């Protein structure tokens, strides 16, 4: 997705040469080793609506996992004669994404059958190079609520920018649809990151 990075400006920074800034990222809040751009425009004196659009935010940069709660940005004026003119943001969080949970269309699943639940994902959910795990839940009431116990817990989440799958041996005791059913795939260590299937019939 795209997010706008914004800042306020004091001083005639647009009159300098070069009249641009570097925006750097630290995934640990300290070491600003990732450069996002070197050509951001500082803005006019007294303005507070200056922005640079971070388009297509990746899940990793230079091998570093961006799924973190300790990300920080630093804006650095590229005019060396001014000395170190810079400003640092507060910590912010980048999260992964789960989407395209199958079934993606209305199907009819029968108890006793084996069906493949699949999903796509962005991000390494386990921190560092660890892809992490997901929990998978079943709902018989169109997603209004899900069974308290997952179909499977701590299942490998699959690859970043790829996804994963699980073959569900549907028990004979599974609740029938009322009126339809859904599957939800949830990041095990962050329940705010999840994806839901299309409504289907059981």
Observed structural traits:
single chain, 202 residues, mainly beta, five-stranded antiparallel β-sheet, four-stranded antiparallel β-sheet, 0% helix, elongated
Fold and architecture overview:
With 202 residues, the protein is mainly beta. It has no helices and 16 strands. Strands 2, 3, 7, 8 and 9 form a five-stranded antiparallel β-sheet that branches. Strands 13-12-15-16 form a four-stranded antiparallel β-sheet, with no helix packed on it. Strand 7 and strand 8 form a beta hairpin. The model has no long low-confidence stretch (mean pLDDT 92).
Topology as a string of helices (H) and strands (E): EEEEEEEEEEEEEEEE
Range of strand content: 35-45%
Unreliable stretches (pLDDT < 50, length at least 5) are none
Number of strands: 16
Structural class: mainly beta
The CA-CA distance between the termini, in Å, is: 34 Å
CA radius of gyration is: 23 Å
**Biggest sheet descriptor:** 5 strands, antiparallel
Oligomer: single chain
